[in-house]
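Chapter review: from sequence to fold.
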Amino acid sequence: MSLKRSHIILLLLAALLLGFAGAYFGVQLAGQGDNEESTEQTIETIPSTEETSTSDIEKVEQAFSLIKDNYLEDVEDSTLIEGAIQGMLSTLEDPYSSYMDVETMAQFNEQIESSFEGIGAEVSMVNSMVTIVAPIKDSPAEKAGLRPNDQVLSVDGESVEGLDLNEAVAKIRGEKGSEVVLEIQRPGASDPFDITIVRDTIPLETVYNSIEEIDGKKTGVLEVTNFSEHTAEEFEEQLTMLEEEGIEGLVIDVRGNPGGLLTAVEDMLKLFVPEDMPYLQIEDKNGEKTPYFSDLSEKKDYPVSVVIDEGSASASEILAVAMKEMGYDIVGQTSFGKGTVQQAVPMGDGSSIKLTFYKWLSPEGESIHEKGVEPTVEVKQADYFYTNPIQIEEALEFDQTADAIENVQIMLEGLGYNPGRTDGYFSEETESAVNSFQEENDLDVTGKVNEETAGLIEAQIIDKIRSGEDDRQLEKSLEEIY
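The token string follows.
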């Protein structure tokens, strides 16, 4: 083996197996994808905790030489080295530990600033499947109807089976204006379906405010869609504005929020959690726990509630569980369940390894990992929120039975038409509802659901969901706050 090749391998193994040298690039809490979590800070070198024998080093070196000198085709050194890194990480069976090459790191840095192009969805690897954690508010993914727990089977007709998460994400991402077709398997749907999404610039704004009047009392609503670079600053500014307007209660909405910067959620919790209890604890591999405290003298003098759903992950869960343990109501459905902390460590050439180092715990020391935060007030949305896109080759019509017909019936009911039943049988009442929909939308009145009718029904359902006009979870949160 040449000195150059030996030098490459020994440096690589020294970095990977004898301890990561250098400063941390950042701390991460969420899964990987179109939106990542990190907080930039510099700390001490990570010490080695285990010795690696010379024979282990020689074994890897021997494998490298064997491939380089004897494999049928030429292989770049960098390809083998990156493959070795990815191979080591894959043995951990941890979807949140991964290797980020130079290109992926460049995308990662864009994502931290919420200034990237793509479909706008947080993804993770769940049971070896590329899974949507949550679409970002006002993103192409949300507008196209992607939902938490949707599994991506293929991208533009190419299967993602066997790809690591970074490789899958690279296929999903793309330039503004370009199209991508995702084959989706949705929980509860018998068959996969395709969703076509036009990529765009992902929105920068992460905090939205409004005031609702409940029984004569002003109630502020702060919707947080992501925890990015300026979220905590935006949140504090908008909270101050609401307080100056005289709000008597506050609802914090983190539904569909996949997470973000640790420092962002910390700064937000410091506005609510008083100094006599931690807002967060971190546990290392030895079981040592470190609590973190604010310098706030007392809690807010008005009630607060938090709204969550299955798309609330990581930093959203840090916020929700801390507020829950303070005694505030948590309304909605059990959250995603992401309770580990990753750190991205630079490898010196622009690439990084993101590795799980810690667990994060609630103020009382509880882990929500793979369990999620359970609401104190459980509320599901209307059935049409959970329908699937209608995939039809031939028109659906009277006296047929199919899962697609059940979807149509639930959607029609959600739009105010009465299909008579929602069990998948195309009855006379369903035919009448289809006729009414077609007539009111200037379609050919046939009583059959063809591709055009199905597409318009779906579009109107998505618009209704995004309008918030039938938001049972938010309505319940506002009701329960006083």
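Two observations follow directly from the output. The chain has a mean pLDDT of 86. The CA atoms of residues 56 and 284 lie 27 Å apart.
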